Amino acid sequence: MIERSLKSLAAALAGKEISSVELTQTYLDRIARLNPDINAYITVAPEKSLAQAKAADARIAAGQTTALTGIPLAQKDIFCAQGWRTTCGSKMLDNFVSPYDATVIERLNTAGAVILGKTNMDEFAMGSSNETSYFGAVKNPWDRDRVSGGSSGGSAAAVAARLAPAATATDTGGSIRQPAALCGLTGLKPTYGVVSRYGMIAYASSLDQGGPMARSAEDCALLLDAMAGFDPRDSTSLERPADDYLRDLERPLAGLRIGLPKEFFGEGCDAAVMASIEAAIAEYRKLGAETVEVSLPNMKLSVPAYYVIAPAEASSNLSRYDGVRYGYRAPEYADLNDMYAKTRAQGFGDEVKRRILIGTYVLSHGYYDAYYLQAQRIRRLIADDFRTAFKQCDVIMGPTSPTTAFKLGEKIDDPVQMYLFDIFTLGVNLAGLPGMSVPCGLVDGLPVGLQLIGDYFSEARLLNVAHRYQQATDWHLRRPAGLD
Amino acid sequence: MSLSLEQVHRVAQLARLEISDAEAETTRTQLNAIFTLIEAMQAVDTKGIEPMAHAQDLSQRLRPDEVTETDRRGAFQAVSPEVEAGLFLVPKVIE
Amino acid sequence: MKQWEVVIGIETHAQLQTRSKIFSGSSTAFGAEPNVQANAVDLALPGVLPVLNRGAVECAIRFGLAVEGEVAPKSVFARKNYFYPDLPKGYQISQYELPVVVGGKLTITLGEGDAAVEKTINLTRAHLEEDAGKSLHEDFHGKSGIDLNRAGTPLLEIVTEPDMRSSAEAVAYARALHALVRWIGICDGNMQEGSFRCDANVSVRPVGQQEFGTRREIKNLNSFRFMQQAIDYEVSWQINEIEEGRAIQQATVLFDPDTGETRSMRTKEDAHDYRYFPDPDLLPLMIDRDWVARTRADMPELPTAKKQRFVADFGLSAYDATTLTASLDIAGYYEAAVAVAGKGAAKPCANWVMVDLAARLNKDGLDIASSPVSAAQLGGLVARIADNTISNNIAKKVFEALWAGEGQSADEIIEKQGLKQITDTGAIEKLIDEVLAANAAMVAEFKAGKEKAFNALVGQAMKATKGKANPQQVNELLRKKLAGA
Question: Which NCBIfam families does the UniProt record give (chain B) (predicted)?
Answer without folding.
Answer: gatC
